[in-house]
Amino acid sequence: MNSNPNNNRLSVLVVGGAGFIGSHMVKMLGKEGLEVTTFDNLSTGHRDAVKYGEFFRGNLADRANISELFHKKKFDVVMHFASSINVGESVNKPAKYYQNNVATTLNLLDVMMEFNVKKFIFSSTAAIFGEPIYSPIDELHPKNPINPYGKSKLMVEQMLQDYDHAYGLKSICLRYFNAAGASPEGDLAERHEPETHLIPLILRAASGRNKDISLFGQDYDTKDGTCVRDYIHVDDLCSAHFLAIKHLFELNVSGSFNLGNGEGFSVKEVIESVEKITNTKLTVLDKPRRTGDPDKLIANSELAKMTLKWEAKDSNLDRIIADAWEVEKNF
After folding, report:
1. Is 176 a catalytic site residue?
2. CATH 3.90.25.10 correct for 198-229+262-328
3. pLDDT tens digit string along 21-54?
4. Parallel, antiparallel, or unpaired: how do β-strands 228-229 and 119-125 relate?
5. Which DSSP category does 126 fall into?
């Protein structure tokens, strides 16, 4: 990668680098030879997940914390993964989501402007689109988030547009659909507590950590009656972020991209894949459908493929589950 104009080794700050996606990103940057620094408060992340570079424990809510780090180190680009992500919780505790996802990002951006750091990669979400009007969802789809989580992420995207116009901050927003999988080396994986994501929950049932799994509704307008979601391997997500850095330094223009495998897999297909790979028969409990669950959420990632030269090469379902199972079975 061509780094900064002086051809020095690129210095990358990864905020939230001790979390699921952030830790995989730190690992990829480190293996690629970039100078990587992690800033994380460890509220949901894990110190032992940071495998490369320097680690600073700090809080985005404390602007002095951020300034202290920028006084110590010079950064060429900032990657922001630190946010609260539980949709259901955001409905019951909206204040937490506007504080953790919006106010803290404002602190970070203002310190970046103070230190003249003008390149930013933002971890956004498909939740900014709300109920899909059509599928697959491309970047032109109307943005109408239906929960505080999605609203908070859209607010940051809108802030970034204003900071670009006013201050020249160039940013890339990457909207994930369903991040999944684990590092093929088995050293990093999802470690949310409580866990709410489908694939790790099913794998916990396969390993015996959970007794069963719940299937919420079988009357959706899909091929087998269960919800269809677009799962993307965490390493594919990280490769998109890596290419986004390159894009920023080569063209110095802002952009937004949807990231997914472009197909989508039903809940039943995920269960069947887990049973096949783990050689386990799972106990599945039929439950009523949940309010607000769309039939299908699938990404159109053609813009990312065309502009960033990105491809989701590891995002077939069996590969995602096999990599995650290598970690789960060792718990």
Report:
1. no
2. yes
3. 999 999 999 999 999 999 999 999 999 999 999 9
4. unpaired
5. G
